[in-house]
Design a protein that fits this description.
Layout lengths: L8 H51 L43 H9 L26 E3 L12 E4 L2 E4 L1 E2 L2 E2 L17 E5 L28 E6 L4 E5 L3 H10 L13 H15 L9
């Protein structure tokens, strides 16, 4: 007689349980490895954009590109007279609610920008962790010839000109104005995660966030600097991370105030890297 026997139900359940335990152990590690790979790609993207930004300045007597995406209002504009923006308006009117432009329209607006001739690779404009259909994930910060916030400019003859405080030029129009602190300490590009209007908004004189913290890369984000290098920042504040997660793809613009010491340190770090200094006396 054939005395071979199959697995019992108990044996099968034990094997399935072991596989489930192994999967529970391995999946987080696999997720982290996948995220680290995407983060590396994103760091390379913002680095390449920063190098294009530097090359543009080299070709234009150190004048830096208009950092306000889609902002092109002709010779009478007080902020960017006759300054072609680095990319066109890649966002839909209802972008704050998640609306997107068709991909072909986004591509047209990217190619219409002043940096396209220096960076002709569409993949470098989008992050691998970005939303499907978003062709632009990156933004230039307010201080790098974006839309200047209160306290960073002077009105002269109907034009806005950069203001200097404490030996620091706050709103940069010319690369030679980046002296104190040095270009290695002033951010230019940020992985905002999706296409939004103009430049990445950061307060100078106010102890609150303006645009929301972006947290899609392991509770942090990527930046590139005026000297061409790029860095990954992981936020320290639990409240910073929670705010970024809650507002992801929502952009409430609530001027959120930190709720913890680490949260305030996150905000200070961003403001100092953007403007070179704080425009107020910090409370923490």
């Amino acid at each position: 007689m054939d005395k071979r026997r199959g697995f019992t139900l108990i044996e099968l359940l034990v094997v399935i349980a072991i596989i489930a335990i192994l999967m529970a152990i391995l999946m987080p590690a696999l997720h982290r490895a996948r995220e680290q790979g995407r983060r590396a790609v994103c760091l390379g993207n913002v680095k390449q954009l920063a190098l294009a930004w530097i090359t543009y300045a080299d070709d234009n007597d150190d004048k830096i590109v208009n950092g306000a995406a889609g902002w092109d209002r002709g010779p009478t504009d007080a902020r960017h007279p006759n300054e072609r923006p680095w990319v066109g308006a890649c966002w839909a009117p209802g972008y704050a609610g998640g609306e997107q432009l068709p991909e072909e329209d986004q591509i047209r607006e990217i190619k219409a920008g002043a940096l396209w001739s220096y960076c002709k690779n569409l993949k470098l404009y989008s992050c691998p962790t970005g939303y499907r259909g978003e062709m632009l994930a990156y933004a230039i910060v307010h201080s790098m010839n974006g839309n200047p916030p209160s306290g960073t400019y002077r009105e002269v003859g109907g034009k806005r000109t950069p203001k200097t405080e404490g030996g620091v030029c706050l709103w940069i129009k010319d690369r030679m104005q980046i002296r104190n602190p040095a270009p290695a300490y002033r951010v230019v590009f940020v992985d905002e995660g999706w296409a939004t209007s103009y430049s990445y908004a950061v307060h100078y004189q106010q102890e609150t966030w303006w645009d929301d913290p972006t947290v899609r890369h392991g509770d942090g984000t990527t930046f590139s600097y005026a000297d061409g290098h790029s860095e990954y920042w992981k936020w320290k504040g639990i409240d910073t991370i929670k705010t970024g997660r809650d507002s992801d793809r929502g952009h409430p613009g609530s001027h959120y105030s930190p709720e913890s010491l680490d949260g305030f340190q996150d905000l200070y770090r961003l403001q100092k890297a953007t403007f070179g200094r704080l425009g107020y006396q910090p409370s923490h």
